[in-house]
Amino acid sequence: MRNVIVLSLLLLNIHHVISAPKGVTASLSAKWSMTPFLLDTSEFIGEDGNEKFWQFVDTVKELTVYKQGESVRSYYNLILKKAGQFLTDLQVNLLRFALALRSYSPAVQASQQIASDEPPPEACPAFISIHGQHGCSTKDIKKLLKAAAGRPKPYLYNKDHIYPGFNKTDVPIVILYAEIGTKKFASFHKVLSEKAGEGTLIYVLRHFVAHPKPQKMLLSGYGVELAIKSTEYKAVDDTKVKDSGANAEEDNNDEVQGFVFGTLKKSHPELEEQLVELRRHLLESTNDMVPLKVWEMQDLSVQAAARIMSVPKFDALKLMRDLSQNFPSKARSLTRVAVKQEMRKEIEENQKRLGESIGVHPGDGELFINGLHIDLDIHNPFSILDILRGEARVLEGLHNLGIKGEHQGKLLRLPVNAVDDSYALDIRHPAIMWINDIENDSVYRNWPTGVQELLRATFPGVIRQIRHNLFNLVLFLDPLQEESVELVKLAELFYKHKIPLRIGFVFVVNTKEEIDGFSDAGVGFFRLLNYIADEYDLSQALMSMVSLYNQVEGGETLSVDTISAYLKRKFPKASAQRILGVESEYDDKRKDGALFYKKSGLGSLPVALFNGVPLSPDEMDPDELETLILQRIMDTTTTFQRAVFMGQLTDDSNVVDYLMEQPNVVPRMNPLILNTDRKYLDFTSKPVVDDWDDTTMFSFYDSRDKTAVMAKRMKYFTNADEDGMSAVTLWIAGDFEKLSGRQLLLGALKRVKASPGVRVGVIDNPSGKPSHDNTVLFRAIWASLLTQKNKAAAEFVQKLLREESSQLLQKGTKMKDLLIQGMDRDAFEKKFNTLEVDFIRSQQLFCRDVLKLSPGQQAVISNGRILGPFEEQEEFTVEDFQLLEKITLSGSAEKVKAKVKLMGMKAKHASDLVMKVDALLTAAPKGEVRKDVHFIKDNHSVLHLSPRENEVFYDVVAIVDPLTREAQKMSPLLIVLSQVVNVRLQVFMNCRAKLSEMPLKSFYRFVLESDVNFLANNTVSPGPVARFMELPESPLLTLIMVTPESWMVQAVRSPHDLDNIHLQEVNGVVTAEYELEHLLLEGHCFDLSTGQPPRGLQFTLGTSRDPLMYDTIVMANLGYFQLKANPGAWNLKLRKGRSEDIYEILTHDGTDSPADAGDVLVVLNSFHSKIIKVRVQKKADKMNEDLLSENSESKGIWDSIASITGGGSKKDDGEKKKEDVLNIFSVASGHLYERFLRIMMLSVLRHTKTPVKFWFLKNYLSPSFKETIAHMAEKYGFRYELVQYKWPRWLHQQTEKQRIIWGYKILFLDVLFPLAVDKIIFVDADQIVRADLKDLRDFDLEGAPYGYTPFCDSRGEMEGYRFWKSGYWSSHLGHRKYHISALYVVDLKKFRKIAAGDRLRGQYQALSQDPNSLSNLDQDLPNNMIHQVAIKSLPQEWLWCETWCDDTSKVSAKTIDLCNNPKTKEPKLTAAARIVPEWVEYDNEIKQLLGRLQPQEDTATPTHTASPSQHDKGDDRRDEL
To answer: What is the pTM of this model?
Structure first.
């Protein structure tokens, strides 16, 4: 009762003035219609593999019949239920998130676009395309298949869904375009899947919705900012805008000053109107925007943290979101929060620790998911979803293997050694004949011996001479090979020039005892060399080799005669018989070289090893080898420098031993073991039953279940470590009735005997159908494993595998006669005689379905990594097992074992776990290193949220200052993350102390939801919007969309001025509707012959039906280019004309066609950035041509410029080459500047007879301007084009809208306009022209790339405001003038030729990192660069502005600019009318034109009072007025 009285008293004080709540809403829709959830879901499941995709498709092939009777919501739930058959609960949650994000919609839309390119036959709900011919029903298949082979095959994309059948290449390809779930699809699918299963065709499915519903799809995953604008100079249009009539949906659950209005309205419905008013009254009293004093600001960040930490932890993130996103109106309330001393102290201690451990400073915002660093400048919700999915596989795997809690994090953070592709061979081998030794030979005695010498500075490219064997080259040669000659000469060259390279040879010659030096030149060569080395020394031997090879004519090989003659001539006293003959004393070690070469597993001769790392065959070309070795020496030097600096390498170290103890050194090279493309078994399944005796049952398991059963039932030969565990588990699969199978297992068992910590399991894969006859040996092996002690079983099986045993068995010896001492004979015989072969059939099925082996083939599995199938002749020796063990251990097995050991479980179980975890971790894609983020104390400054028990959880650590841009984005992200997945969350309040200015000057919303939303009537909501309610009405706001890097968005509907939102002057809600106009395709292009970007090269992008839709120019900075596109398949080509004449495309990366294909195909099928690399080369006959040369300009390039808007329609009147046209460029944002812009255009047109073409920057124009410009163009007879360019991600970003627009004025002049535009004149929107701009275009710039007007000096009273007269500018400019950027003319040819754009961007990049530099970006940058990029000063009359120029000079002014006046701060509109008499006339003329447009539109569309989504285009144009 008391509450009601208080409430009534409060309500009495409020005047009853009910008005609609005010606010701003912004939404962003896709350009395409909403894609069906079922198709999006199929794409999500398809990410887990082709097999799953088709299983899902089979399950839902006619699902759409349920659509009719059900509501949209229940149909959606049905889809999730069906998907749940193939996904875990966690993955279903990720699927919900993906559907809310519409993450897979672009993939579906891409298929739709590819279908429309076919094009679809008329009135076909689904159709097939067979090698270019179409059919609408299953009856057409047979007919179309007949002659298909004669027609070219269609192109298949990487992400195409191909039905799993036989991998035949000689059968026709049938592409089905259909919508999964429809009847038509089901009938096609039935026929095609059968035929694909038989192997008569390849069946490809692409999504195609015959009649997409025209339902708009609102996107999420972006931010919207309302920044508070400075109102120092009034720049707001006074034209009245009609309100949209939209009402704000109130957020009733909000608590305002202790009142929860949702609850109050429910309990007092009769007081609803007064409650609305009370809520508003309270809001206005809290939205106190009075500026704070500096002393009130300094603790705001810590005060916000204290406030967040004081509420219940489940509300804390919401509070952080509220404080950061609405900070300007919350600031004052924060100043009253008291902060505990312990909290300040704890924050400081943690910050000190974070600074030292991971380099995070106070105020920084960082996010870590399972230790992976998520940089929010690069990542967006779409890429975070991908990370969550990737992590889910590993997390669920660990969870299924029973690893919980702390152990999960420890195993995840194990550094799994990335697969090394530069393995080295141990070169400490006696078979290597070292020609020199830098540490001991007297030749090098004057060289310094300390390894610290490596750290001494030298000139670049100088090789340090240090007396250590740092660089070792070993050459494996066959002396008789022609290639050996040049390599020996090269070795001598290195030796003679005293390159610090230790050189060794391994000669691979004939090893037969009876061969001597008189019958084999190789043996003779070897013996002669040994003789010289013994009698003289090794260096003499090297010289002799060279002179011996000099005797050989080119193209011939070394002969016995040459060797004998050389011996006679050089060493006349020596006996040829004693040296070369059968009884030679110089023959020792002859076999060593060949044996070492054979055991090493190296490829064909000659081979070179640099510090043990083999060079690839194409690097062995002697001409290239010299530079290659010197380059390797330079590269390796840096590694040694690091080792010396870290103290790993000291003067006492033996450098060769140090090198050979590195993890990449292996005992032998076996490409099968060392290759980087590795396949792993998945052990993470938990099958309901684990029966392999029932083969029929076993055959129904999927591959993961089959693997789990095998792992459970496997028996092992072990040689455990002292702790009883085995870190390496080998499974040997093969047919043990065959010799190769027996040898393989014998090799493995020998390795087990020699190496503790290895165990071996055996899988039978008989050549025929398993029976008692063809499984004798395996059953004996299995019986011994089941019944005997480990040692006895191993010895017995080794005996059994030897050749003599199998011969005895074949001759009829009984198995019991082969048993050995120490075995339990009875147990063995009983087991052996009763073993059935059913489980062997299951093993064979496992080999077939999971290992992909044919019957009888062999494979080795090491901790889940599959090696095989082996070729018939392929040997896998004991040395290979040793290598495999080393590789497995060094990867992660050793580290996993150490962690598993701490869990304290039984040895057999622990060994199983090591195998399974190792397979899981090494199979996971290698990302960056996971960081371990710890806080010293976490009582007062860290917010903790615990995960739900016994479920998979993500470990999320956020470090954030609650009053930063990062917090505005991170807090909603963390809220959604905790709704989507189970998280253990820690948020550290990384506050800055002693703030001197307001930390945030904007309101912000991050649009993101964790699941699809439905409306009250169970229909799906179009999607989320950004809602700003409770905004203060006094400040002037500007709306900025903060979208992922590759999105290009534009406002498509809003009657209001989104650049100047002033809620005091608005009734209701300001609605802004944006559209994702393009997804960018970005790339980097280089010329292969020069390695430089080909400046001025042009690319075009289009589809096969319309090859020229968009075009672009390559920048010199990073060879960057960007093209506008949308989901679909695109062709990238060189532009017809000079680009295509001079250049050709050689290779490309990141595209969807093979790297060497001439056609560059790119498929855009996601919201992620797509970045490609293209390498081009000049054609042979055009090597000396320059793209940007003066004399050769492409003809008629105008005709092919892809126009972006209706303006393009004006250019079809067949242009002459180099038509006389005035190109005027301008930028504007906000209704006032657009009003000025129209007046500027009119003033230009009134003073020239030359045809004019206007170029406007599209990025910031309002929808109303874009709609009315076409009418203006028609009325006044000019042409126009809207150009747009997305600020490249690598160029330092500006956050303030005004500065971004300034950047666009100057930074992209070389790429915004086609190459055909020679000169462009930039005219500020607020300028009025009084002369013919043709004179300015034709003005002689005397070789400068652009001309600007200097600032006036004539108005004396403004002297104090002329900042360029003192300080930095006066010293930088010297005698030069400071120029104004309101008007400039650019000679684009010259500008591009001297790479002015690239220089300006380079200088901008260097200066813009400092927030205090370039305060007037568009003006300061060219003035700062005046020494590198010259400015031609234009005569003063070209730009007059009242602020700086005196009144007398106004008469001769050719243009008048409405500069801001820092002294009077006069508003623009007042100044315009006062200074320029004709301005008002122009203004009225345009108002009349726009007024005439309005009635046309009024008659066209009745006025709506409905929601803004129903507004027609016409309505918006009217709203402008």
So the answer is: 0.80
